[in-house]
Amino acid sequence: MHRSTPSTRAGKSVQDGGQAVRASAARALVPVITAKGSLSDLDDHQVVIRDRALFKAMCYGVCRTLPRLEALAERLLKTPFKARDADVQALLLLGIYQLLYLRIPAHAAVGETAGAARQLGKEWATKVLNGCLRRLTRESAALQAEVDQDPAVALLHPRWLLKALREDWPDDWRAIAEANNQPGPMALRINRRRGDREAYLARLVESGIDARLCTHSPDGLVLEKPCDVQALPGFTEGDVSVQDEAAQLAAELLGPALAPRPGGRVLDACCAPGGKTAHLLELFDIELLALDSDAVRLARVEDTLERLGLSATLVHADATGRDWWDGTPFDAILLDAPCSGTGVIRRHPDIKRLRRASDIAKLAELQTRLLDNLWPLLRPGGSLLYATCSVLREENDEQIRAFLERTPDVTVTTPAEVSWGRAVGAGRQLLPEPDSHDGFFYARLRKQG
Questions:
Q1: 427 phi-psi bin (left φ>0, alpha ψ -120 to 50, beta other)
Q2: For this structure, is 389 an active site residue?
Q3: pTM for this entry
Q4: Residue 42, C-beta contacts closer than 8 angstroms, at least 6 positions apart
Q5: What keywords were assigned to this record (predicted)?
């Protein structure tokens, strides 16, 4: 039986209000399983405080294991639910997830999940859910062995993505898939304007929070166990932020272009949610313009900078156009390009359902437009850092190879002598690693002249 480390244990919420939290989780999952929305709106669902950990654990867990849960559901149901009963389908998936992956007593998982159908106004479904889940408790081993004969089910990934991983990374595709299936560790970035990470590590120890230094980022720490950000010493005051180690490398890579030029003019294109924006401002004396086409996400950047006591010019605009540009060239550009997110699936498991094979070519075309539009905005001698949180080569080294072929005034300056990632074309690729960094790609380019 496949089991993951549980994010929560059965508690009072199972015995008191257990049906309500499961009904809320089912409602939250409907947009994902119908491919019409993501998990980004979980906080909008009304769930009592004592049940929020269980609520999130179930929602994320179902998305993480969705191919397997759906294969089992198909075998447990005599006839599929109708489209209008996607919430009941979500309850069935929740019940299967609890039985296989959470340390919740079987009788509670079955009873509370089946009973939650009443909370959805569909009492007729209680008998169906009860029957399916009880059958799973009796025939679990045989049913799991049957569905796991399909590699897409056993590795919890859509077939198109497994195929793409195998083609791009023939020696690593299975390890990538397995890393995607584990929750990523909680990494922190120290605000170097307010202290160093060794001193902050001591503060964590004093607070009873175990952590270790990141291997590659000089500003990073990794917590042994995730915690609420409000439990982090000095979080509200701006001493620390949550950011994966791989994402922290962007500021380090731009350092050689920014450190020698105090007051340099920098563009952070596609800046939301603002982690890299803030890191640049923490490390360098620069004039930064942060651009994003999503007004809601741009507001999050503003909130982040306010908490950290940093300032930048925030602009709501599309980086494929230039109507926002004042004509003054930039000394450096960070293009954290929109991408498939295939390097951060462990943090956003709904990507497995929401992303399609056909999306990759469209994203690559958008990345091409962004590169071609922004490159002329860079001064001669300036640097552009291209970044994605993807592991697919069409978006990464193949994208940069094509850019180099059509752009004559480019010199590749991606560092070779670093301890992270691997050289791939003109860039470096990090693959997701358990207990370490996410999947990321970087290519640093200098404009000749």
A1: beta
A2: yes
A3: 0.92
A4: 28, 55, 56, 59
A5: Cytoplasm, Methyltransferase, RNA-binding, rRNA processing, S-adenosyl-L-methionine, Transferase
